[in-house]
UniProtKB/TrEMBL annotation:
This is diguanylate cyclase. The chain crosses the membrane at residues 6-27, 68-87, 99-117, 123-147, 154-174, 194-211. Pfam families: GGDEF. Keywords: Membrane, Transmembrane, Transmembrane helix. Its EC number is 2.7.7.65. Coiled coil: none annotated. It is an enzyme of class 2 (transferase). The keyword Transmembrane helix applies. InterPro entries: Diguanylate_Cyclase (IPR050469), GGDEF_dom (IPR000160), Nucleotide_cyclase (IPR029787), Rev_trsase/Diguanyl_cyclase (IPR043128). It catalyses: 2 GTP = 3',3'-c-di-GMP + 2 diphosphate. Residues 253-385 form the GGDEF domain. It comes from the Bacteria. The keyword Transmembrane helix applies.
Length: 390
């Protein structure tokens, strides 16, 4: 490490940050762009600018009284923006403002220290403030620790440890100016530079890896959730139905199934356009949700056909629930840009029988739904109980 003089390290940090800025510009994030990507890219650019200024000062291209205060001010701003991006990415937007205020304060404190004493006090302030700002980045990464992935936890711990190494250099200037045993102040300075370098790499690649992790989670979610209405799709609904089918084989409380199909939906799309049709679908889902218990399950089977699973519900009760939803839909038109769109739906209701497969169950519910459609739509029809069949 003895070859790494401060100017070289600063130059390495400047070039590294510039390379990461270029990488970010050309990196294809696909459809799953991290939410804080723009802010985070700004943080990288500001930090790249800061290290470039400091490198130019170190190489005497720029006068130090200009490059040093401006470089450190930019650096504090860049790390504060990076922490802000971390909070935004963690979904804690409320922490962004205090983080930026802390960054501004850090700039003020550093500039004051620089004016008072351009030697030790300046180094002390720079290391302590940078360490504290990076601890904030670590805190943002560690937000929601209990549910966080291993990668996120690793990045949080790594960032915290490296931030402490950076801060330790400031403390050593204050408490042990001559170093301690083998830990000379020069070694601490080099460790601190190495920590800053690792922080740059860990946070840059960490952000990209976290983005990939999030994209994977979103893909897995979309396999079972309908993106338009945010309720389980056919696959998700059938997966949730399986245990209830098994339970129905045992004597006990009945479980009901309602299938719901919106009436004449084609005309909505034709008359008002597809986006208005989508709004109607979301509205109908919201109406259904309001009529259901937490334990009930609503899913979108296909197009404008939905299914509702009602645990511990007999046929007569399920008919009442379906009737409530029917009335709610019929009496609650959707406001679109051009008009109020009135909507109705038809319902088929049945209960799970011990001998049922999903095929026979849905056949019965669909037959009942067909009866409701044939009977004039906007009505509820129940399948015959098993005892009354044939
Ligand atoms: N806006 C929108 N329309 C959809 C969506 N999925 C399916 N549709 C439309 O919904 C309509 C469904 O039509 P059908 O169920 O066959 O018939 P209908 O017009 O509703 O008439 P009945 O069911 O016989 O009362 C089709 O025009 C589809 O294009 C969607 O996600 N958004």
């Amino acid at each position: 490490m003895s070859n790494l003089d401060p100017t070289t390290m600063v130059l390495v940090l400047a070039l590294g940050n510039l390379a990461l800025c270029a990488l970010l510009t050309f990196f294809d994030h696909g459809t799953a762009r991290p939410p804080a990507l723009g802010v985070w890219a700004l943080a990288r650019q500001v930090q790249a600018g800061a290290w470039t200024l400091l490198a130019l000062g170190g190489a005497s291209v720029l006068p130090e009284p200009l490059s040093l205060p401006a470089g450190f001010a930019l650096l504090f701003a860049g790390v504060a923006i990076e922490a802000g991006a971390g909070w935004e990415e963690a979904g804690r937007d409320g922490w962004r403002r205090p983080t930026l205020v802390a960054g501004t304060l850090a700039i003020g404190v550093f500039l004051a220290c620089y004016l008072v004493d351009q030697g030790g006090l300046r180094s002390l302030a720079a290391s302590l403030l940078l360490g504290a700002l990076y601890l904030n980045v670590a805190a943002a990464l560690g937000a929601g620790w209990a549910g966080a992935s291993l990668l996120r936890r690793f990045l949080a711990v790594l960032t915290a440890v490296l931030a402490l190494v950076v801060a330790a250099r400031g403390l050593s200037v204050l408490l042990l100016p001559g170093g301690w045993r083998w830990l000379s102040s020069e070694l601490l300075r080099q460790l601190s530079s190495a920590a800053l370098y690792l922080l740059m790499l860990a946070n840059a690649f960490g952000m990209l890896l976290l983005g990939r992790e999030r994209a994977g989670r979103e893909l897995a979610r979309l396999e079972v959730v309908d993106p338009l209405t945010n309720v389980p799709n056919r696959r998700g609904f059938f997966a949730a139905l399986a245990p209830w089918m098994a339970l129905a084989r045992r004597p006990g409380q009945p479980t009901a199934l309602v299938v719901l199909d919106l009436d004449g939906f084609k005309r909505v799309n034709d008359a008002y356009g597809h986006p208005a049709g989508d709004a109607v679908l979301r509205h109908v889902v919201e109406l259904c949700r309001r009529q259901l218990r937490d334990s009930d399950l609503l899913g979108r089977l296909v197009g404008v056909e939905f299914a509702i699973l009602l645990p511990r519900t007999r046929l007569e009760e399920a008919l009442l629930v379906a009737e409530r939803i029917r009335a709610a839909i019929a009496s609650s038109p959707v406001k679109s840009e051009r008009a109020m769109i009135a909507m109705t739906a038809s319902f088929g209701v049945t209960v799970i029988r011990p001998e049922d497969s999903t095929v026979t169950l849905f056949q019965r519910a669909d037959d009942a739904l067909r009866d409701a459609k044939d009977g004039g739509r906007n009505r509820v029809s129940g399948a015959l109980p098993a005892a009354l069949e044939a």
